[in-house]
Structures are given as structure tokens and as C-alpha cells.
Amino acid sequence: MTVLTPWATPRLTAATTPSAALLHHRALPPTGIVHLGLGNFHRAHQAVHTAAALAAEDGPWGILGVANRSATVADALREQDLLYAVVEVSPEGTRVVVPAVHTGALVAAREPDAVLDALAAPTTRIVTLTVTEHGYTFDPRTGALDLDHDGVRADLRGGSAPGTTLGLVVRGLQRRARAHGAPITIMSCDNLVANGHVTERLVREFVAALPAAERTELEPYLAQVAFPSSMVDRIVPATTDAYRAAAAEHLGVRDEAPVPAEPYSMWAIEDTFAAGRPAWERGGALFTDDVGPYELLKLRLLNGTHSLIAYLGALSGCATIPEAIARPAIREAAERVLRDEYRPTVPVPADVDLEEYVAQLYTRWSNSALGHRTQQVGSDGSVKLAQRVPEPACSHLAAGRMPHHLALTVAGYLCCVAPPSGFDPGPHARAMNDPMRERLAPLATRSTGDFVAAALGTGVLGAELAAHASFTGRVAELVDVLVRHGVDAAVREAADHLTPVPVTSR
Ligand code: CS2
């Protein structure tokens, strides 16, 4: 192993990138895609599929990456000729590749006008989004655009730089409609059910809330805008020094912004583009008329189970998902929620071999070399769980069955982000970020039953699930067992349902 001293190692640039690491060898294409959300996920997923597509077929599909507020990645990329490494890690070994598909890196909060110009440029034909569930500024209780959100209100008023994703998108479309009106595709790559439809609906709601003159100017242009749905799947942890070291070791140069990722990657896309697209099917993506079944499979089997592993893992003191899934009790709870509670609620796409898919999930979660943190998966539960838990839970409840492990997921979440008085959930849970923390925390001083009813009563998991008293009751029992007896006892309680709960439909 070569040991590189950081100060003596040259920086990754166009001149120093080892050619063997490049995913394609074409000249950098002009910008055809503006991507909002220049985080790790985009750089390890869409950028890699785009580079692979470009290797197979040339086209004007360079990506201008836009970070929302933080300049860290954009600045590092600018110092590296927009290059960075993807460090693919598994127990079998490490592979380091450089996608080389970015044509620029901007920060919306710092240079909003340049971003709006890029969105309006006639050469821009696709806008892609990875802004997390949280970035769509909808009201979790109703799913509608949150018109009480300060950022949304400011962006609707206009007159200053847009601060929300929808504000940026709509103001970009407005500039476009005024300049030339060329068609464009807006594609969400976030973990939302029916992400294309949701994005379209939110854009339309935003436009409908604009003053009449702006509304009538923009509404007809929306007919030129396509909103395909897409299902994205790759486990991408946060960057740490270990990955910087791995990139340096493999490339022989210093990369300040590498991205770790698992080897697995999947992208299912609805083929309804308004102005062309890269040959992503030649870069590993799958095109389909209906992304829905792929989305549900992934959001429930992978993401839903992932959340349970993260909460029970953090409460057991596990820093990482592989550590958590290696614990017999957590593995058992994961198996049960996946097989008995999520699986019966998803249609399986014809080309997916379910057994193989599920076996792969356990291998992926067990990737100890990757060390995906429980804190990362557990963060933002208030927006993530709403996409994962309520629909399957309500469908079981409607059929007269109590989904004990979905209740355990919610109980684990509450214990992590709003720990009942006197209960210490441990460092990994304390480190979880959640936009609802401040609202939920004061409720946790109440008796468990009141606390859980009030917590779900905030609408965090939608009104329908909150109205099932038997479900909130079951969550409360599991919170009590978690707090008093720990994770293993709660898993036993969920599996054997020692405490009988009558399932009432409301
Ligand atoms: C995870 C996802 O953090 C989470 O909630 O479940 O980020 C998951 O790793 C990706 O969706 C995998 O594609």
C-alpha cells in the first residue's frame, strides 16, 4: 500500500486524473442537464449512469450541478476541474472511478441568477432533482404545497432570490417561458411515492398561488414541461477521511470531495421526456411505462426496513447499519417487517426476481466495508417515514390486522428523536437530525399514551394513521417496552404480541 502524505500529494484535476479511472473518454459535452442538489447521492448515482451512457453514446448531456446552500462540494469541485472520485466499497474490495460529467458547480444561495439563467438556457433540456424528501416543502399532513412555509411564501412574493427548490424551478421556468418557451423535462430523483406526479402537482400548486398576471403567463407553458417519475437506488453514505484516503490511495492524487457508494445501483425511469435525454438505458438504467411498482418495492422493502434497522440499531448503540443488522433481534425484526408487513402491500414488477432482490437487500445492508451510519438513515424520519409507513400500515389495519413491526418502527423513531423523559437513546439517536424534533420533544414529557397520540396527532404520519387508536396504542406499548426493557424485549413483544391489542378500524 502506498502511503500518501496529504501535503505532498497533488490534487485531482483534469491533468492528474489517471485515465484508467475515467468512466468515459469523450470530450466533456456541453451542459444539457441542470441538477439541483449537488450532494453525494447525485454524484454517485445519476452522474455515474450518465457517464456510462456517454461512454456508449455521445450527446449534449453535461451536468451543471447546483448545491442549495452549502458551498463545500461546489468549491472543492471547482478546484478540481469539476472532477471527483466515486469510491465503490464492498467486503470484496474497492473500485475507484471518476465520472467526469459535470460542466459547472454553482451554489443557489450564492449565485441564484446564474442558476436561473442555466434553468432558462435553451440548451438545458432536463432538470433533475435530489433535494431529499424534505426539499419539496409540502405539508406532511396533506401533501399539498406548504403555503405557511416561510421560504415558500417569500418565493411566491418574489423580488428576491428563490430560497426553495420549487421557487427556483418555477422562477427558472418563468424565465424560460419569457425567453423562448422551449420544452423541458423536470425529473425528481428523490424517495417520494410517485415523485414525478408529486413534483408536477407541487409546481402547479406553486404557479396557482402566484399573482394572477404571473399565473396566466406561466400556466400555458406548463404544457411544455414533462415530469417523469423515477426510482433511484444506491446506498451512498457521507464522505469521511477514510474515503478520502481510499481515493488518494487508488488514484495517487488528493480528492477533497470523493463519494463512497455500494457497488449496487438501480435507476428505473418513466420514458416521458419533453426534449430528449441521454441514452441512460446504455448506462445501466431501465426505462418503463410504469415506475410505480419499482418505487413501492424500493420505498417499502428497502427504505422502510432500513428505517427500522436504523432506529433499533441506534437504540442498541450501533453506529452503522451493518453492525445493527448483525444483531439477531434486529435481523429478526427486519425480516418480519419486510416479509409480513411490507411485502404483502407491494406489487412485484414482472422483471424482478423477488427472492433475489430480498437476498441482495441483506447483502447490501450487511456491507460492513461501507459502514452506512444509523444516524444518517434515521435522520429526517418525519419526512421519510411518511413515504414508507402509513399506507402499508393503514392497509393492514383496514383488513383487521395489527402491523406490529410498523408500529415498532414508529416507536423506535419516537424513542430516537423525542425520547421520553429520563430515557437516554444514546449518541447515534441524539445525532439524528429531524425537522420535527423541536415540535415532538416537548410532547415527550406526557404519559406514553398521550405522548404517542399527540406526536401522531401532529400529522407527521398523516391523518389517517393517527386516527387508528389501536395503532397509536400499540406504538405506545412498544415505546414503553423499548424504554423500560430495551430493543431485544421490544422485538419479542412485536413478534409475539404478548400484550393483546384489539384492532379497531378507527
Ligand atoms: C435510506 C436511503 O437514508 C435513508 O433513508 O433508506 O437513503 C437509502 O440508502 C437509499 O434510498 C438507497 O437507494
Automatic annotation (TrEMBL):
Entry's Gene Ontology BP terms: mannitol metabolic process
Record-linked Gene3D superfamilies: N-(1-d-carboxylethyl)-l-norvaline Dehydrogenase, domain 2 (1.10.1040.10), NAD(P)-binding Rossmann-like Domain (3.40.50.720)
InterPro entries in the record: 6-PGluconate_DH-like_C_sf, 6PGD_dom2, Mannitol_DH, Mannitol_DH/Oxidoreductase, Mannitol_DH_C, Mannitol_DH_CS, Mannitol_DH_N, NAD(P)-bd_dom_sf
Stretches assigned to coiled coil: none
Keywords: NAD, Oxidoreductase
Residue stretches making up the Mannitol dehydrogenase N-terminal domain: 32-281
Pfam family, one: Mannitol_dh_C
Reaction catalysed by this enzyme: D-mannitol 1-phosphate + NAD(+) = beta-D-fructose 6-phosphate + NADH + H(+)
EC number(s) recorded for this UniProt protein: 1.1.1.17
GO molecular function, one term: mannitol-1-phosphate 5-dehydrogenase activity
Family of the protein in this entry: Belongs to the mannitol dehydrogenase family.
Name of the molecule in the record: Mannitol-1-phosphate 5-dehydrogenase
Source species: Pseudonocardia hierapolitana
